[in-house]
Amino acid sequence: MILKDAEATEAAGRILAPYIGPGDVVALSGDLGVGKTCFVRGVLAGLGFDGEAPSPSYALVIPYAPPSVRIPVCHVDLYRLKTSEEAEELGLDDALADSALLIEWPERLGDRLWWEALKIRLDDVGPKGRRLTVSVPPSWEARCPFL
Ligand SMILES: Nc1ncnc2c1ncn2[C@@H]1O[C@H](COP(=O)(O)OP(=O)(O)OP(=O)(O)O)[C@@H](O)[C@H]1O
Ligand SMILES: [Mg+2]
Fold first, then answer.
1. With a 6 A CB cut-off, is 5 part of the ligand 1 pocket?
2. Domain of 43?
3. What is the four-CA torsion angle of 138, 26, 144, 124, rounded to 10 degrees?
4. DSSP track, 23-78
5. Strands 61-64 and 130-135: what pairing?
6. Which residues contact 21 (CB under 8 A, 6 or more apart)?
7. Residue 45: what pLDDT?
């Protein structure tokens, strides 16, 4: 799927939002500045968040809770994570009990990334914008809107 500009990336996030529930992990890969945060802002908007969601580059985890969003959700950016062990301290496993996780730089988790994660990859394709590629685990097969 080709996303021609930032609005299209955000719109793709909005399209995914209704299918996300507590316990779901959406992993967003792609180079620096490719549009991962932009996609997450679309998801958050689709979940009802009305505002400019900051990038979690420094906080690493930014939680959102109802009523500003339909379900609890954590926006996570692991770019600054040095080792996958450090991830334990973020408490993502606990958060997953009642929240969805939207994770930028999921490769920082190595093999700690949940295997049931919906994997979305964004690639810069020059003047055409970005290409979105999905890798769909069994639990998403019946509901992924990008298939
Ligand atoms: N489909 C698109 N076509 C062209 N530009 C886009 C597209 N989607 C997003 N962008 C632009 O990409 C830029 C970077 O976006 P964003 O901050 O979301 O990237 P990121 O992947 O989160 O970066 P980082 O790795 O630093 O977290 C923004 O200026 C945004 O407007
Ligand atoms: Mg980002």
1. yes
2. 2-137
3. -120
4. T-EEEEE-STTSSHHHHHHHHHHHTT--S-PPPTTTTSEEEE-TTSSSS-EEEEE-
5. unpaired
6. 71, 100
7. 98
Please write the tens of the pLDDT for every residue from 28-65.
999 999 999 999 999 999 999 999 999 998 889 999 99
Ligand 1 pocket member 6 (CB < 6 A): yes
* 6 within a domain of the structure (yes/no): yes
* Helices 6-16 & 36-46 angle (0-180, nearest 10): 50
143 falls within a domain: no
β-bridge mates for residue 100, sequence order: 73
Number of domains in the chain: 1
Ligand 2 is an ion; residues with CB less than 5 A from it: 36-37, 55, 104
Answer whether residue 142 is part of any domain: no
| Å from CA of 42 to ligand 2 middle | 13
